[in-house]
Amino acid sequence: MDAQFLVSFALIVATFGLYIGIAIYNKAKVTSDFYVAGRGVPPVFNGMAIGADWMSAASFIGLAGTVMLLGYDGLAYIMGWTGGYLLLTFLFAPQLRKYGRYTVPEFIGDRYQSNTARLIAAIATIIISFTYSVGQLSGSGVVIGRLLEVNASVGTLIGVVLIAFYSAMGGMKGITWTQVAQYVVLIIAYLIPVIFMAMQLTNNPIPWISYGEIVNEMKAMDQELGITEYVIPFTENTKWQFLALMFTLMAGTAGLPHVIVRFYTVATMKAARWSGAWALLFIGLLYLSAPAYAAFSRFILMDRVAGSSIDNLPAWTRSWVDTGKLSVADKSGDGVLQWSEIVISNDIVVMATPEIANLGILVIGLMAAGAMAAALSTAGGLMIAISAALSHDIYYRSINPHASEKKRLLVGRWSIVIATVVAGLVALNPPGAITQIVAWAFALASGSFFPALLLGVWWKRANGPGVIAGMVVGLSVTLGYIFAAKYGGFTILGIIDTGAGIFGAIAGVVTNLVVSLATKSPSKQVQEEVIDLRYPEQMTYKDGEVWMDDSSHSS
């Protein structure tokens, strides 16, 4: 048991204790606490909670690694996720908050006046959130496995127990304040190593400015080695895959139920907009740092590890080889580790780089705590989304509308425990890398919720039969394309499984339009409610005119 283990272990145990303490202190006592945190979260703290909810294991652990391995092509993830957040903040979030419901399926069911639509939306929520949570739990397994020097599967099981406990205890209220603490931990953990690396490599503490110098040096090294240059676009995938992936992530972001529900936790439309603005600032700190992280990590591997004697590799390589996420082999038999003989998973790049750059045991421990915060924060939000779909949209709204508060809370808590355990079992043998699994979840959201919300908020003519057909077709097309591309090698224009959302979204929108126009129009009341969503809360649209709250006639 070395000093590194003790420092990392102490930091993680301390943060675990903090999260559990917050969840117990903010234990949900009524259903509004459990589903929407009592609608009383201040915008700046909601922005931090959104940031933590959003910056999952895929963002924290996998994003910089993906950019490092894919180069220019990896930027589709950053551009898609960031653009999607703008889309959500300006096009959907304030309008959904004004409508005032607990969940996305509840909005769809009431807006389209269809119980069937609500049930399909609830099932879609479960599928999307479950897929996403498999990636998060897999990420927590990587972190805990490395820390305790055990197999990642054992680490995953430990993560399952922790998430199930504090999510079921606190509900949305507890998770909100836990996520605020997790955001602080994870952003500090992410920024300190990249700033240290910038000072170490360029003598400039501002990585967002200095990493261009390193990129130029890598360009020369790539040419010397005769490998694909880091900054050349569309070398790993086609430009159609780049565009399809970017669209999928953008539309998927705008349709993710566990992110949208965060906008229900504030009091007003104005607070929802401010929450989005704060969240963009907090998320931007990490996303703007990821390309610098990727460049520094790749440069250090090329400059300090490649070319070393195979018998004299740094001590950190052994620990990561044991996790199964790193492979080093002297295939040429010359006794020297070549760049082409290093196979590193994109899931461990961020976690391993502080060790590779020899940044000290405290920074390495802090990184482990930050990665855990990222994986746990998003997993907690996902479990609440699944629980709300099961206990509120299916159990309360469809099966037992007379259920007591106590019984609804009990069903919600057990839903979280069962969903976490099942997702954890699937995560023991994940079907892909973390970022790939997460991309599937975004594709499913693109094909199901994005068309339903887009037309539900901005097109008054959209009706129940249209949204039912649109969600079923969009979800089916997305799932079909993912399986056909992943396991059958089928592609259109070189678009692989992670870009499947573009086909689902187009199919969903077209189907909703055609079926809505071919069937009966929504009632006048529903159409006026849709138009009313475009006005601030102080105004109400009715009978073709806009009315102020003080009953004064304005137009």
Automatic annotation (TrEMBL):
Question: What are the transmembrane regions?
Answer: 6-25, 45-69, 75-96, 117-135, 147-168, 180-201, 240-264, 276-296, 359-390, 410-428, 434-459, 466-484, 490-515
- A single GO cellular-component term on record: plasma membrane
Query: Which compartment or compartments is the protein found in?
Result: Membrane
Recorded hits in PROSITE patterns, A to Z, give: NA_SOLUT_SYMP_3
Top-level lineage group? Bacteria
Q: How does it sit in the membrane?
A: Multi-pass membrane protein
| Presence of the UniProt keyword tRNA processing in the record | no
UniProt GO MF annotations = transmembrane transporter activity
Q: Which UniProt keywords apply?
A: Membrane, Transmembrane, Transmembrane helix, Transport
Gene3D superfamilies assigned: Sodium/glucose cotransporter
Which family does the entry's similarity section mention? Belongs to the sodium:solute symporter (SSF) (TC 2.A.21) family.
- By what name is this protein known? Sodium/solute symporter
Organism, by scientific name, is: Pontibacillus yanchengensis
